[in-house]
Amino acid sequence: MSDLKVPVSPEPPTAAYLLETLFKSTHHIHRHFEEYLSAQGIPAYLTGPRMRFLKFVADAGKIRMSDLAARVGIKARTVTQFVDALEQENVLVRIPDPDDRRATLIQITESAIPLIRKAGNAMSEAAEKLLISLPPESRSQLLKHLYQLAEVKGLNDDMNEDENG
């Protein structure tokens, strides 16, 4: 493990300093994560949020966009933006709903399945590489603290969906 340059102070860090450090760290981690994915040949349009979105679509098989918005916990217009972008890349396709001719369903294209699998594997590898310096007990502590922070605004439900869904 590298020698960390953590500022030492007799006073606990302020909330502002902690959040600033969290934001900087998140930015740094995200940048390295994206660089790793790019080096593995993963297209830039397969971002983490879009992969999470695609997981819900894959699990459903075929799903209405409104149902998907409710399951993922995002606004309908965000679903539309994701679908438009991913449809343009031939990852998703809109199909008529056989039960309601006014509605459409979305599903993953057959040609996109191997790419999505490859992206998921690359994301797991990137996560392991980025967190390699954290031993299991530190990872558990970090997760606990992240859940505590999320609890402030009631975000734990969404985080639990990610873990279980």
TrEMBL record:
GO molecular function terms noted in the UniProt entry: DNA binding; DNA-binding transcription factor activity
GO biological process, one term: response to stress
Matches recorded under SMART domains: HTH_MARR
InterPro entries per record: HTH_MarR-typ, MarR/SlyA-like, WH-like_DNA-bd_sf, WH_DNA-bd_sf
Limits of the HTH marR-type domain: 15-151
SUPFAM superfamilies registered for this protein in UniProt: Winged helix' DNA-binding domain
Membrane-crossing segments per the record: none
Key words, A-Z: DNA-binding
PROSITE patterns: HTH_MARR_2
Alphabetized PANTHER family for the sequence: MARR FAMILY REGULATORY PROTEIN (PTHR33164:SF99), TRANSCRIPTIONAL REGULATOR, MARR FAMILY (PTHR33164)
Protein name as annotated: MarR family transcriptional regulator
Species of provenance: Paenibacillus psychroresistens
